[in-house]
Design a protein that fits this description.
Elements (H helix, E strand, L loop, with lengths): L23 E2 L26 E10 L7 E8 L2 E6 L2 E6 L6 E7 L3 E10 L22 E10 L3 E11 L4 E10 L5 E10 L6 E8 L8 E3 L1 E6 L2 E6 L3 E7 L15 E9 L2 E9 L4 E4 L2 E4 L2 E3 L3 E4 L13 H13 L4 E4 L6 H10 L2 E3 L10 H18 L2
Parallel strand pairs: 22-23, 23-24
Antiparallel strand pairs: 1-8, 2-7, 3-6, 3-8, 4-5, 4-7, 9-10, 10-16, 11-12, 11-17, 12-13, 14-15, 17-18, 19-20, 20-21
Helix pairs in contact: 1-2
């Protein structure tokens, strides 16, 4: 670990003297200098690293991945630059959502991966509970899932879901992306699970898809349910309306019914599937009050400032967040405001299951200016894509 090296300089293999088993933070792994501070106004980290830390290891690409684009998935970290086989391949500054680094098509065999994580860098000036020393601490490391994913040249990049309580339907926006040129006939299928009801099929013809080239989509996307039929021109964003049925259960704090929607893409370039768990609900203002599905709701909750004294960082598993929400429910609460930070996906999963209303925030507190808004816009858009379902 060395904060003095330039960002574009990869340390030699001999520079990696310490070992760490990721996922972890350096403090929980017992790495870094002891913290001489003893604060009375906040939690004090036992060990503290402020700066850049390099993480390196070798990995093997199996023969079965030949010709398939590989993506590195880091569920939660800080500003991070990724190096592959001695060359930088990308960086990401997002704090609140997973990092997804395309590594390209890798030859089967051994490769060297290095991560350059710097916890000094923030998307905007000011303070926040995502990185401040006040509560969880400004840890360095990688938390949650760390995965190499072999993908398809043509794949589903994102599925956005908007519930429509009045129509008992879900409006889906499916974004496709491609890493190689292809010209073929594709089949997109969306279906509710697990009731096995009416299938909703969509045919998409794709032509001239590739990096740096103009993407053109020819044909139509059709969605059929009973005697209803909805059609739309095929595009990079394919819009579908999925009828849940007149008796579909609604989600609220008293009955948190969930629906599992799968979207599957089948093509000669490979298959891809994306699953979204969501609820049919409508939360809106009703005069001077809030209402959920037309019924007035009274929010009773706490402000969560990322206080995790046992680890110095947020829990990353659903079980831990279930326990947290169950304790709040035992005290009559139904709502949490995450103050100037956003928890991981596990928190949203547990909240959905247990019927909790969540208000999450950007990593910032201070004077709000147009410059701050512009700096934090990528983070806000990424939060909505990752957790807005």
């Amino acid at each position: 670990m060395d904060a003095t090296l330039p960002d574009n300089t990869l340390p030699p293999a001999t520079a990696f003297a310490a070992e760490i088993i990721l996922p972890a933070a350096t403090e929980t792994a017992g790495l870094g200098p002891l913290n001489p501070d003893h604060r009375a106004d906040r939690l004090t980290a036992v060990r503290r690293i402020e700066g850049a830390v390099w993480y390196e290891r070798e990995f093997t690409v199996p023969e079965t991945w030949r010709g398939r684009p590989v993506v590195l998935f880091l569920e939660r970290t800080k500003w991070c630059r990724v190096w592959l086989d001695g060359r930088p391949v990308g960086e990401c500054a997002l704090l609140c959502v997973p990092h997804k680094h395309p590594l390209g098509v890798l030859a089967p065999g051994t490769h060297r991966l290095a991560l350059h994580v710097d916890n000094r860098r923030k998307p905007a000036p000011g303070d926040n509970h995502q990185t401040s020393e006040h509560t969880q601490g400004n840890w360095n490391g990688v938390l949650g899932a760390i995965e190499l994913r072999a993908t398809s040249p043509l794949r589903i990049a994102h599925v956005g879901v908007v519930p429509d309580v009045a129509a008992r339907a879900f409006h889906l926006t499916v974004r496709l992306e491609s890493s190689t040129e292809c010209s073929s006939y594709e089949h997109l299928q969306a279906a509710p699970e697990p009731d096995g009801g009416t299938k909703h099929d969509a045919n998409v013809r794709l032509t001239n898809i590739g990096p740096g080239s103009e993407t053109r989509f020819l044909g139509k996307v059709m969605v059929t349910c009973g005697d209803r039929e909805v059609g739309t021109p095929a595009a990079q964003e394919v819009k579908l309306t999925l009828q849940a049925g007149p008796d579909a259960a609604l989600w609220d704090e008293f009955s948190p019914a969930l629906h599992r929607i799968s979207v599957r893409l089948e093509s000669p370039q490979g298959n891809d599937e994306h699953v979204v768990t969501t609820g049919l609900r409508e939360f809106r203002r009703a005069g001077t009050q809030f209402a959920i599905n037309g019924r007035v709701a009274f929010l009773r909750g706490e402000v969560n400032c990322a206080v995790f004294p046992e680890t110095g960082h947020t829990p990353m598993v659903v079980a831990a967040w279930r326990r947290y929400f169950q304790i709040l429910r035992a005290h009559g609460m139904n709502h949490v405001r995450f103050h100037s930070w956003t928890p991981p996906e596990a928190a949203f999963t547990a909240a959905d299951e247990l019927g909790f209303y969540v208000a999450t925030e950007l990593p910032f507190w201070g004077e709000w200016t147009p410059a701050i808004a512009d700096a934090l816009a990528p983070e806000g858009e990424a939060i909505l894509r990752a957790y807005g379902h």
